[in-house]
Design goal:
- The chain is mainly alpha-helical and 214 residues long.
- The protein has 11 helices and 2 strands.
- A two-stranded antiparallel ribbon has the order 1-2.
- Helix 10 packs across helix 11.
- The protein starts with a helix and ends in an 11-residue tail after the last helix.
- The relative contact order is 0.20.
């Protein structure tokens, strides 16, 4: 097993546990039906989307697949249609699993997410997770390390969204969680915006440009 996969096998459960702590905060439960910082999405819907990252991992890590395997997490974002489609419209968000799950309430999310975090930890530590993981809704698969990196990115990014939505500090992730996500976001930002935009934004405030990766 390669070093990157070993590292992400250990770091993903940490990321998922930090997200679980955020989901459990009283501020999230108290503002469940309020709008979140993301367009058309409630706080509850955003919390469900964040909690789903561990649920997806628990479902997919042990699943066999014959889907074509992409070379990297970067390829996943290069090919995923949602990356270039912009922010989802109101109808798309309203019909998503996130809002449907939010109707079931915070306690339901807490139970599902806690169980998934435990299952993921057992799969990754006990050898039950496969080396190649399918992403059926995209029609391809990723090596386990790349798959975990995509879920880890979702956790880090949407933890910030959720924290901002309810007015609490964004969780501080340890380096083993944050650094791979940071590096992936930088690569995606450079691919989308170019080297000059990134250099200016990070070093020259007087000419900073939009360097968002998505």
């Amino acid at each position: 097993m390669s070093r990157p996969v070993d590292a992400l096998d250990a770091s993903f459960p940490i990321a998922a546990s930090i997200a679980l702590d955020l989901i459990h905060r009283a501020e999230v439960t108290g503002r469940w039906s309020s709008p979140s910082a993301l367009p058309h999405l409630s706080v509850g819907g955003l919390a469900c989307h964040l909690g789903r990252q561990a649920v997806r991992a628990a479902e997919l890590l042990p699943m066999p697949t014959d889907l074509p395997v992409l070379q990297s997490a970067d390829n996943h974002y290069e090919r995923a249609s949602w990356v270039s489609e912009g922010s989802p419209d109101k109808g798309t968000v309203a019909s998503s699993n996130d809002e449907a799950d939010a109707v079931r309430g915070p306690e339901d999310l807490h139970g599902r997410s806690a169980q998934a975090v435990e299952e993921v930890g057992d799969l990754l530590s006990g050898g039950g997770a496969r080396d190649v993981v399918p992403i059926p809704w995209q029609g391809w698969a990723l090596r386990r390390g790349d798959f975990l990196l995509t879920r880890q990115l979702e956790i880090v990014v949407h933890s910030d969204d959720l924290a901002v939505s309810v007015g609490v500090p964004t969780p501080v992730f340890p380096a083993e969680v944050f650094d791979p996500v940071r590096d992936l976001l930088v690569r995606l930002a450079v691919r989308r915006r170019g080297q000059s935009a990134l250099i200016s934004a990070l070093s020259r405030s007087e000419r900073a440009q939009d360097i968002s990766a998505f």
